[in-house]
Design a protein that fits this description.
The longest helix is centred in the N-terminal third of the chain and has 18 residues, at about 45-65. The chain has a single domain, classed as Rossmann fold (3-Layer(aba) Sandwich), CATH 3.40.50.2020. Helix 1 (about 5-15) crosses helix 6. It contains seven helices and ten strands. It starts with a helix and ends in a 7-residue tail after the last helix. It has a six-stranded mixed β-sheet, with helices on both faces. The protein has helices at about 5-15, 45-65, 80-90, 130-140, 160-165, 175-185, 190-205, and strands spanning about 20, 25, 35, 35-40, 70-75, 95, 110, 120-125, 145-155, 170-175.
């Protein structure tokens, strides 16, 4: 396992960002039911993990996309991650709303985005990929060239991989579901029964618990 994958997974467990509720499943915005919820927003409250994530995102984005001119964060979860990464990269920052606001400038993209700018997108968590790719669509519609996306965490669902491929967007993540469950099992964070439930859910999350 990659050291960043492992360290981030361990960090998420340490701060209690991984919530298990098999008997009262969480309901995602997509309508899917899930026995697990990864609350990446808790990263912001932990200085050490916050810095680790910011530095890792900045290093990965710089390594993969050295020509990037602007960093864009996906609202709302990735705004802070994106700003911290952009600061370390010395790049301008913008963020993308889910839809244009209904007042003021009615902007969907906040900040200064030059026409034709080469953009790397920062995301916090990728599940189905729909909201992440909607941000890509908005950036492209504004005339930006999206080089790729770097995210903190992904569940690694096939539907997301297919959607990113269809849009021609390269996705790189710091950690993922497999690394998280492996670390959780090794540390005793989850019990064997939990691991079995999580495995069944991962096989077909869209129909689990229906």
């Amino acid at each position: 396992m990659d050291s960043i994958e492992r360290k981030l997974a361990a960090g998420l467990l340490r701060i209690g960002a991984v919530l298990l509720r098999p008997d009262e499943p969480f309901t995602w915005a997509s309508g899917w039911h899930s026995p697990i919820y990864c609350d990446n927003r808790r990263i912001f409250s932990d200085p050490a993990l916050r810095s680790f994530v910011a530095e890792s995102l900045a290093e990965k984005a710089s390594e993969l996309y050295p020509d990037a001119e602007v960093v864009a964060g996906v609202a709302t979860g990735a705004i802070a991650h994106g700003v911290l990464a952009a600061d370390r990269m010395g790049k301008p920052f913008v963020y993308v709303r889910p839809k244009p606001k209904d007042h003021g400038t009615q902007s969907q993209i906040e900040g200064t985005l030059p026409e034709g700018a080469k953009v790397v997108v920062i995301e916090d968590l990728v599940s189905t990929g729909m909201s992440s790719l909607a941000a890509v669509d908005a950036l492209r519609a504004a005339g930006a060239e999206v080089l790729g996306m770097v995210a903190v965490f992904t569940y690694g669902f096939g539907v997301a991989e297919e959607a990113f491929a269809a849009k021609g967007v390269s996705l790189t993540t710091l950690s993922n579901y497999g690394a998280l469950i492996q670390e959780a099992a090794a540390s005793g964070y989850i019990k064997p029964d939990d691991a079995e439930v999580l495995g069944r859910w991962r096989e077909n999350p869209s129909t689990w618990n229906r």
